[in-house]
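Give me C-alpha cells for this 94-residue protein.
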Amino acid sequence: MEPDDDPLLSDLIWWKSVKMLVVEASLQVDRYDVERAARRSATLRRAGADAVGVVIGKAWATPEAWEMAMAQGVEWFIGSDMSDGFRQFRQTPA
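Here you go.
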C-alpha cells in the first residue's frame, strides 16, 4: 500500500458510533493534505467502514486547496470555520 493510501499514517482517526473521520492536520492546509485525507478515507471505505476524510488547520494554504476539498468530499475545520459535515459529526452523540 502506498503511504498516501494508508489510514494508519493519518494524523488522527476519530470514531463516533459507526462513522469515522480520517484526519490530516497542518497549520497551512494544502492540496496534498486534502489528497491524503481523501485517499486514506477511501481505503477504509473499500474495507466497509463509513469513513470521511477531514483536514484541520489554521488556514488554507491556497484557494485551490479549499476547492479540492469541496470537489473530493473532504470535510474541514480551518481556523474557526468548519464544513457542515464536520459540524454534524461533532454533534453526533458518542
